[in-house]
Amino acid sequence: MTPEQCFAFLEKWAKRSQLKWSELATHSRHGLGSEKIPSHKIKPSIPEPLRQDDYKVLRHESNLPMVGIQAGDILYVLWIECNYGDLYDH
């Protein structure tokens, strides 16, 4: 990640950390909110223990996504896209 992408990631992470998941659900998917993506659209190989039907997508810098698994109140970030199209086709 570039320094700018790192800053944007941390800035949005800090904002999200102040909200509950129910509050984040009211935000736009291109803002602080999220959406789901089916596993078959993910380009990198998914390790067997992490495979599931879909994953949670949140944006960091501009509209670049990070993808992870939500377990209760915790989001485990698995991938952070630095260049459009590296993680999945937009």
TrEMBL record:
From which source organism is this entry? Microcella pacifica
Protein name listed in UniProt:
Uncharacterized protein
Q: What is the lineage of its organism?
A: Bacteria, Bacillati, Actinomycetota, Actinomycetes, Micrococcales
